[in-house]
């Protein structure tokens, strides 16, 4: 995931797209066997026997027919899942997506050259923007090396969705509009939208074929800030993007109906490279406690971010940064890669601009003013109210665990990601007295337009290990044995999921065929253990390794009684963000993190004594 940028690249960013293998369809027998294995930790013997009979009937009956139809679909598509996944996981959802679907997170610059400092918001923003625009140019000219896992080329299609991309609400289903083009494909929009105090401004980030320099960007940002200083806030139309999707779609239709110029403004925002949000908040985060800036990025002012935009870059008044992104067009690794690129560039230059201070003559930013009436104002007020009610219910914690990191774990010949996942299982088990159904993202980018598969870390082996760890009579040897079995099972399942041999997306495909053909819903999907084990988007723990870089993000929990858990693993630290709904009496993100810390120490101790 490091950004290899070559001066004279031998490989173009998107050159392997057409040679990637199609997404495979696993065998029905294998998927059903894996599914049965996955539900086991959540069932009594009696419940398990009932489910096993349901699965057997499905495999010998309707499941066979559905599987054949799925194979047929896969013959005519290079990725049988792509369109379905986009629709079912994102575009058809009707609840507000800004908090429930988007991911947000802190930028890591505060750890080195840009600690929280007041009075530098615009100056830092101009430099950060310049590096982001350089990244856009790398993608435009295909100078970013294609990602690889060893020698295996990975799909880069999602990188087309970072810039000039936006979701547009529909009454029953949203759509994604993407205006990005590489240089060889033709012209691409080059304007940026800046949001400040509920108002919108736009300017071109390119002048005479050259990207604006930081001093030039600073001039444009200063103009926006001066326009808003001491003036009443704008109408805050952006808050509508935080609404329930159908409600927002109808409000948008009305907005266009009262003045056709509003449609032009919406298109300007949609096609912009990205949105820059000038936020008056001062989160004052530290390298040990990222909580304030993570919370702000995830739940901040809805009038200065466009919830449907693929990238909102948020610049806070204390000189720190964050982001908020729609999850539909791409997965977090795209923004992580871009954020890490900017971080490395800032480190290399100590966060300073060392080029020309000359500011070329160019047009000042243009304000985009929506025509609104009382109904629009009422829609905005309603959107803000529901947004604030929901965000106030979200508990967000984000801390660095600094006792050890990747180096110490690998020294003990253990996989760092599996280490964290098992520590999380133990933390949850300790806190709740049972195991939590768990989703971990597995990446399927070795296939054409591959995105993700579900890896379920809550295995029988993990359950047995957690149980053993809390038995006062269990010997260190018994704990170690159980730990290694849990490790091996996790690593095996993760490797299978990444190689197109998971089962969750396969079952989703079979479910969707039944739904599309108007067939009665097979018992497998209505069986209580299906949702109890996490199926149908019911995972108690929604987790993802954000990577081994300096960049972290955060998401809301998947279910009301659950947790959202993102983490990054550094050489000497593990930084994790954990979210929970305050209105759920059984969850507490702060306690879960503290239990995670206990688990991490216990596991390292166990692995260390094993080496003696």
Automatic annotation (TrEMBL):
Principal location class: other
Domain of life: Eukaryota
Keywords for the protein's UniProt record, in alphabetical order: Acetylation, Acyltransferase, Fatty acid metabolism, Lipid metabolism, Peroxisome, Transferase, Transport
E.C. number: 2.3.1.137
InterPro entries referenced in this protein's UniProt entry, alphabetically: Carn_acyl_trans (IPR000542), Carn_acyl_trans_N (IPR042572), CAT-like_dom_sf (IPR023213), Cho/carn_acyl_trans (IPR039551), Cho/carn_acyl_trans_2 (IPR042231)
Active site: 327 (proton acceptor)
Catalytic reaction annotation: octanoyl-CoA + (R)-carnitine = O-octanoyl-(R)-carnitine + CoA; 4,8-dimethylnonanoyl-CoA + (R)-carnitine = O-4,8-dimethylnonanoyl-(R)-carnitine + CoA
Family to which this protein belongs: Belongs to the carnitine/choline acetyltransferase family.
Protein name, entry field: Peroxisomal carnitine O-octanoyltransferase
């Amino acid at each position: 995931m490091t950004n290899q940028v070559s001066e004279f690249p031998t490989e173009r960013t998107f050159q392997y797209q057409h040679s990637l293998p199609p997404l495979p369809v696993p065998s029905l027998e294998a998927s059903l066997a894996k599914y049965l294995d996955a539900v086991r930790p959540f069932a009594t013997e009696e419940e398990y026997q009932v489910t096993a009979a349901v699965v057997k009937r499905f495999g010998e009956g309707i499941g066979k027919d559905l599987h054949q139809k799925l194979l047929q679909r896969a013959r005519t598509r290079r990725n049988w899942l792509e369109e379905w996944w986009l629709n079912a996981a994102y575009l058809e959802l009707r609840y507000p997506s800004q908090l429930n679907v988007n991911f947000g997170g802190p930028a890591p610059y505060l750890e080195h050259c840009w600690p929280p400092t007041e009075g530098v918001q615009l100056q830092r923003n101009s430099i950060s923007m310049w590096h982001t625009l350089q990244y856009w140019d790398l993608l435009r000219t295909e100078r970013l090396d294609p990602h690889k896992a060893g020698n295996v080329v990975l799909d880069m299609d999602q990188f087309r969705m970072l810039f000039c991309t936006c979701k547009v609400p529909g009454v029953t289903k949203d759509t994604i509009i993407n205006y990005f083009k590489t240089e060889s494909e033709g012209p691409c929009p080059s304007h940026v939208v800046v949001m400040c105090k509920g108002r919108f401004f736009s300017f071109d980030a390119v002048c005479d074929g050259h990207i604006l320099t930081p001093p030039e960007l600073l001039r444009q940002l200063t103009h926006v800030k001066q326009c808003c200083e001491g003036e009443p806030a704008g109408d805050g139309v952006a808050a509508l993007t935080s609404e329930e999707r159908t409600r927002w779609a109808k409000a948008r239709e009305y907005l266009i109906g009262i003045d056709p110029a509003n449609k032009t403004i919406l298109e300007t925002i949609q096609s912009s490279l990205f949105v820059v949000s000038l936020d008056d908040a001062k989160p004052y985060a530290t390298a040990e406690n990222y909580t304030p800036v993570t919370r702000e990025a995830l739940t901040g002012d809805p009038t200065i971010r466009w919830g449907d935009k693929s990238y909102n870059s948020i610049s806070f008044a204390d000189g720190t940064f964050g982001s908020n992104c729609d999850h539909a067009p791409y997965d977090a690794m795209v923004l992580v890669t871009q954020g890490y690129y900017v971080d490395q560039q800032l480190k290399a230059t100590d966060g300073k601009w060392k080029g020309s201070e000359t500011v070329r003559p160019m047009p000042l930013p243009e304000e985009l003013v929506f025509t609104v009436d009382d109904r629009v104002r009422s829609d905005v007020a309603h959107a803000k109210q529901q947004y604030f009610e929901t965000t106030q219910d979200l508990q967000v914690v984000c801390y660095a665990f600094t006792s050890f990191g990747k180096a110490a774990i690998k020294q003990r010949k253990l996989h760092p990601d599996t280490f964290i996942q098992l520590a999380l299982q133990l933390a949850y088990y300790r806190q709740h007295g049972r195991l939590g159904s768990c989703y971990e993202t597995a990446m399927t980018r070795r296939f054409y337009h591959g995105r993700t598969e579900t890896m379920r870390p809550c295995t029988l082996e993990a359950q047995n290990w957690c149980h053993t760890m809390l038995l006062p009579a269990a010997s260190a040897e018994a704990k170690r044995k159980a730990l290694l079995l849990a490790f091996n099972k996790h690593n095996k399942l993760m490797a299978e999921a990444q190689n197109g041999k998971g089962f969750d997306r396969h079952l989703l495909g079979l479910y969707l065929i039944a739904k599309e053909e108007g067939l009665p819903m097979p018992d497998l999907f209505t069986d209580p253990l299906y949702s109890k084990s996490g199926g149908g988007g019911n995972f108690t723990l929604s987790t993802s390794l954000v990577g081994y870089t300096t960049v972290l993000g955060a998401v809301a929990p998947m279910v009301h009684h659950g947790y959202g858990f993102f983490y990054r693993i550094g050489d000497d630290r593990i930084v994790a963000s954990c979210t929970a709904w305050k209105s759920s009496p059984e969850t507490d993100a702060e306690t879960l993190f503290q239990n995670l810390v206990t688990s991490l120490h216990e596991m390292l101790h166990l692995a260390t004594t094993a080496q003696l």
